Each structure stands twice: as C-alpha cells, then as structure tokens.
Amino acid sequence: MQTLFATAINIHQMHALGLLLVGVLLMRAPNNRLWQIAAWLILGGQLLFAGNLYWISLYGRSPAHWLTPVGGLCLILGWLAVAAGALRRTSARTADSLSAAYQGDARNSDQ
Questions:
Q1: Which of 53, 52, 20, 11 is nearest to 39 (CA)?
Q2: Residue 43 in contact with residue 71, Cβ under 8 Å?
C-alpha cells in the first residue's frame, strides 16, 4: 500500500505543477477556452485519480474503483487540451501576421 500512496503523491505533485503552468498560461490569455477546459480536466483528474489511490492505500479498497481510470483519462484529455490551446494560439498569431504582411504588400504595390 505504500507504493500506491507514493504513486498518488507523485501524480498529485506533477499535475499540481502542471495546473500552476496552466494558470500562468491563462493569465496571459484569459479567453483561451481550451486552456480553461484543460484546467478543469487536470483538477478533476487529480481528484479522481490521486484521490482514489489515496483512498485505496488508506482503506484497502475503494467503493468506486472505476474512478482511477476515469481520472487518468481526464488528466490525458487535460494535457491534450493544453497542447491544442497552444497550437491554436500559435496558428492564430501566424495567420494574423501573414494577413498583416499580405495587406502591407498589397498597399506597397498600389503606390
């Protein structure tokens, strides 16, 4: 049971740092919906995954053993949402800069 408790602590610590990272990202881009969803998924995944592992390590068994894989899925989806939010933000910036460059070229060719 100590191994299970140590695993829960490791998962909890790593994803707590990740949640702080998502918070910093949201401070820079508060309207990024994918990062907002990612924060909730990571938080929920932590509660379900690590919480259920804590429960099992303390009491021997869990009344809802299926919560661990659901929590793991939430964590995976949360990190995918972080990546998708970053890609979406980068592609939007690239599209804006290309559009501005194209408009600048069009103005220069008119003169």
A1: 20
A2: no
